[in-house]
UniProtKB/TrEMBL annotation:
<feature type="transmembrane region" description="Helical">
    <location>
        <begin position="110"/>
        <end position="128"/>
    </location>
</feature>
<feature type="region of interest" description="Disordered">
    <location>
        <begin position="133"/>
        <end position="179"/>
    </location>
</feature>
<feature type="transmembrane region" description="Helical">
    <location>
        <begin position="58"/>
        <end position="81"/>
    </location>
</feature>
<protein>
    <submittedName>
        <fullName>Uncharacterized protein</fullName>
    </submittedName>
</protein>
<feature type="transmembrane region" description="Helical">
    <location>
        <begin position="88"/>
        <end position="104"/>
    </location>
</feature>
<dbReference type="Pfam" id="PF19609">
    <property type="entry name" value="DUF6114"/>
</dbReference>
<keyword id="KW-1133">Transmembrane helix</keyword>
<keyword id="KW-0472">Membrane</keyword>
<keyword id="KW-0812">Transmembrane</keyword>
<feature type="transmembrane region" description="Helical">
    <location>
        <begin position="28"/>
        <end position="46"/>
    </location>
</feature>
<dbReference type="InterPro" id="IPR046096">
    <property type="entry name" value="DUF6114"/>
</dbReference>
<feature type="compositionally biased region" description="Low complexity">
    <location>
        <begin position="148"/>
        <end position="157"/>
    </location>
</feature>
Amino acid sequence: MSAESPGARERISHWRQSFRLWRWQRPFWAGLLTLLGGVPIIWIPYADPSLSQLSFRLATTTGSGSLIIGVLLFVLGLTLWFQPHSRVFSGVAAILLALVSLVVSNLGGLFVGFLLAMIGGAMAVSWVQSKERPADPAETGEVPGGPAPEEAPQEVGLAIVEPAPAGADDGQNGAHRDA
């Protein structure tokens, strides 16, 4: 191993910083919740759970509807990750699919998929990209995992307002002048 090649620790640190920056620029958690909301909606109608020798089926005649809703939620979650500019459409579509899953897919995957998709869709609609990007430790001179540099305190100026003498009216009723 040469002295110029980065070690595993530097590669992992670089990957984590790159992923953090990528995640910061899109509604990551909204996409993850929407994507995860599709899993129980797909799985529950096709599952064959059993307790000891007692087997019960949750499948309905609309198993294909559950499959379609689950796959669409999965695709909307990926869309939120890779096309963040379409977040409003994807969020509204996820909310509508979650509502439809209540009727079509065994109460929206026994309410688990419904809640995940609803929360993910709401987060997607309300997400706004920050104007400033997160500080890169290389630019600020921070050591990763080290203490944050202290910021200089900012002074806040206060204006002292004194009441105007009685009878000193500048044309506005009850207006006071700043000193």
